[in-house]
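Appendix B. Chain record.
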Amino acid sequence: MSTPLPKVVIEEAEFAGRRARAQEAAKARGLDALLVCSRGGGPVDRYADIMYLANFYTSFPYTPDLAPHWTGRAHSFLVLPVGDPGLLVADIPYLDGVAMPRERIEVTDNVIESVIAALGRFGLSRARVGLVGDDVLPVGMARMIQAALPEMRLEPADDVVGTMRMIKSPAEIQRLRAAAKIGSRMIEAMMKAAEPGASHGDVMAAGLQVVVPAGGALYNSFMASGTGGDSPTLIRSTFPTWRSETPLKKGMWLRVGLSGVLDGYVFDVSRSKAIGPATNHQIDAFETAIATVQEGIKATRVGTTAGAVAETGLRRQEAMGYPLGGVFSGLGHGLGLGWDKPWLVMGDKTELKPNMVLNYERTVSRDGYVGDFEETILLTEEGTELLTDAQQRFW
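Structure tokens predicted for this chain:
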């Protein structure tokens, strides 16, 4: 692929409809408005809610506040009163494709001051305002808003937009399908590059040669290699995860968990491989990861719960002799403009519904042998559709 893939268009009317539904949900819980905060700055993290409601992302990097010159850089806000079109406060003037009327966008270096002024203009200085982006708004910025508007009640409201984001529109499904294809081609290229003598960086570079020309971006890549048995070894790096200089050798296993975005929508896929001929112990770990994920997918249907699906898959893992644990205790999660609800964890009562896009992932480990496998599906009334189509076995 030498040129970016064509972008799936999401019409402005869809964004307007999302804002209207968010306002109705806010009104239903007695809120006077929503204040939505997202972060951009180049990283692929925490941009989702503003992009979902207004199709805006700020590429300006995070810069500590230096009042009166600038505040809130790398952050964007949507002030959305009930019954009013609202105002998008942006820190860059690049507005092509933004799904808000131009007169409803304010571009400023002093983002927080502009948000405070907008809240006042909309008559919200003594109102109940739901905050969407509770984990995104820095404490210092929140203090500035509360100090300027001490009688305004700022209440957590992440679930207002989070609940909406669980169910994907046809256009979102198209974007997620395209993202899954790119993720699949990316991990196949990485597995092909994983040969004796290659470093983790070499493997990562092969994947970047796929995603970058396609117009996508890397989110993260969990990479590790090693050997099992009586004297197991583990080779990995934390920052970046492909920094290890130890080359791959025959007899090792390799696992790659890969995530990235295409047009804002996330792909998430993982695979395992033996370096050289696969041993029975390696294959057992690889197959356990596959079986665990596939058991969860098999149990997925409209009307069941996220917790029931998680329990079905995880019990299969235990039955195959691999203990639960690791860096993620669930079986997966929703997928969209980020890690969406529902979370596939035991005990979760969320009912699965049509047009959810769900990602199933499992890393298993025993005696130093590691297996990793991950797939993404679309849930429909008829069943499940596999969106990832990467080769499943490399042995």
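Further analysis of this model is presented in Appendix C.
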